[in-house]
C-alpha cells in the first residue's frame, strides 16, 4: 500500500471518530456509543493488524525493530 492509500485509510478512521464524537455530543444514547465504539475498534484493529502490519517486513529490512 502506498502513502496516499494509507493516508486515505487514516483520514477515513479520523472522520469516523469525529462522527461518533459529534453524535455523542449531540445526545446519542450510551448503547449507540458502545455500538459505534465496537465498530471503530474493529476498524482500528483491522487497520493495525492488516494495513500497518504489512509494513513489518519492509521496516525490519531497514533495521527497524
Ligand atoms: Fe496506519
What ligands can be seen in this structure?
Answer: fe (ii) ion
Shape estimate: elongated
Terminal Cα span: 20 Å
Strand content bin: under 5%
Residue share in helix: over 70%
The largest pleated sheet is described as:
none
Number of helices: 3
Mean pLDDT metric:
84
The helix/strand class is mainly alpha
Number of strands: 0
Radius of gyration: 15 Å
Low-confidence stretches: none
The helix/strand series, from N terminus to C terminus, equals HHH
Q: What are the key terms here?
A:
80% helix, 0% strand, mainly alpha, 65 residues, binds fe (ii) ion
Describe this entry's structure for a reader.
With 65 residues, the protein is mostly helical. The chain has a domain at 31-65. The protein has helices spanning 3-25, 30-52, 56-61. The longest helix has 23 residues, at 3-25. It is elongated, with a radius of gyration of 15 Å. The mean pLDDT is 84. The structure holds fe (ii) ion (FE2).
Brief characterization of the structure:
By secondary structure, the chain is mostly helical. 80% of the residues lie in helices and 0% in strands. The structure holds fe (ii) ion.
Secondary structure: elements and pairs:
Elements: H1 3-25, H2 30-52, H3 56-61
Helix pairs in contact: 1-2
Fe (ii) ion (FE2) binds at residues 6, 10, 47, 51-52.
Amino acid at each position: 500500500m502506498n502513502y496516499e492509500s494509507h493516508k486515505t485509510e487514516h483520514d477515513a478512521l479520523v472522520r469516523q471518530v469525529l462522527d461518533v464524537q459529534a453524535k455523542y455530543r449531540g445526545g446519542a444514547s450510551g448503547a449507540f456509543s458502545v455500538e459505534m465504539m465496537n465498530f471503530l475498534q474493529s476498524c482500528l484493529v483491522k487497520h493495525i493488524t492488516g494495513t500497518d502490519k504489512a509494513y513489518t517486513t519492509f521496516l525490519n529490512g531497514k533495521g527497524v525493530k
